[in-house]
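Internal tracking record. Fields below are filled automatically when a chain is submitted to the structure queue. Please do not edit lines marked as system-generated. If the sequence contains nonstandard residues, flag them in the REMARKS field before resubmitting.
Queue: standard
Priority: normal
Entity type: single polypeptide chain
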Amino acid sequence: MRAPSRPLGRGLGARLTAVGATLALGAVAGCSGGSGTSHDAVVVWHGYTDKELTAINALGQEWNKAHPDQKVNVTFAGMNDDALKKTLGAFVSGKTPGVAYEFGSSITTLAKRSQTQDLTPLVKSTPAFQWNDFFPAARQAATTPDGKIYGIPALVDNLALVYNKKLFDAAGVSYPTPSWTWTDFQNAARRLTDASKHQYGWSYFNDGSEDTVWRFIAMLWQAGGDLLTPDGKKSAFDSPAGLSAMQLLHDMAVTDHSVYLETGDGQYQNLFNSGKIAMLWTGPWDLAGIPKDVQYGSQILPGKVTHATIAGPDNYMLFNKGDRKTAWAFLQWLDSPEVHLRFSIATGDLPLRESETKLPGYQDFLKKYPANKVFVDNLSKYVTKSRPNIPAYPKISQVLGTAVQSVLLGKAQPKAALDQARDQVDAILAGS
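SYSTEM-GENERATED OUTPUT FOLLOWS
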């Protein structure tokens, strides 16, 4: 998922800034279209911009020079937010790409289509691909509930606590630590709030979208709860854990007034940068938007039972267009530890594999993006669950988004909101 629309996978949308940064990726000149093309090249759609666009084009060029008989056409196909819509439209028009970058949330929709390739046989017959080397969150997002693999990890991220050191110092509040509890977090947010300055301790997305929901799910897990029952047939969030999470949101937003309610227009980052918001629960996609003169730190999320966080992975998906052998070979190379780490160093995107963190170049990554260490560590320590890859999830998310929004606005009490959401979600899962 990147930017506010990222949580369903941003691929957490792509950055909305102009292309500008250059990249030392060993790019090879002399090919048109950024990646080098031919009439039979496998078309690879993506929605990357800025540094990621420069990086993926350079890698496409590098691949094509080394594999003149297996060329790819790495093509910007519009913002990642519209990837699913454009892919489905391509199925109708017959102009399907060979590979496309898709949000993790799109896998259940696309897996039903005849054009989408089941990658399970390819992954299982290619031990050198080292499927289990990918972080668990990335593998989960690429796999349907029946155990079939339809995606190759393209991006993985997660939420951590990012804080403005200047505001903490001014308020005399100690910086967040790995042992912070919800109580520590709430107390700090209260002390960091100054109504006279329109300054808030924390910001929470309150537009009712998946940005609202996935933060609540992280809190639900932190309190020891879960979204659905193990068989996926009933809701499980109307529980003591769910009530604890919803009550914390209510108390901070309605009682303490320590929360800036972000409406989806992206103002939260400007307010953080200008010293009006002290803490964010956000991902690595926002770090690039923090000016160098803003002193900030990152820490794991506060905990109640655990310090659980939540990931928003995206995938490359293969379709029945072009040479599948070339497409598969290219994706194996693109996701190899050495190549993907170079991509991470160039862009700030997190490593996809455990083995990337063992390579010498990983220290270069940390030196360039020191705040990202918390997010990488989260992938192996605190990303223990994933949102369910089921067709009903978008409807479930909509119900929960409305429930959380009503509580943050003081229009509903936590228990009543949970009860109503439970009934609606159970009806959705029952097929009503």
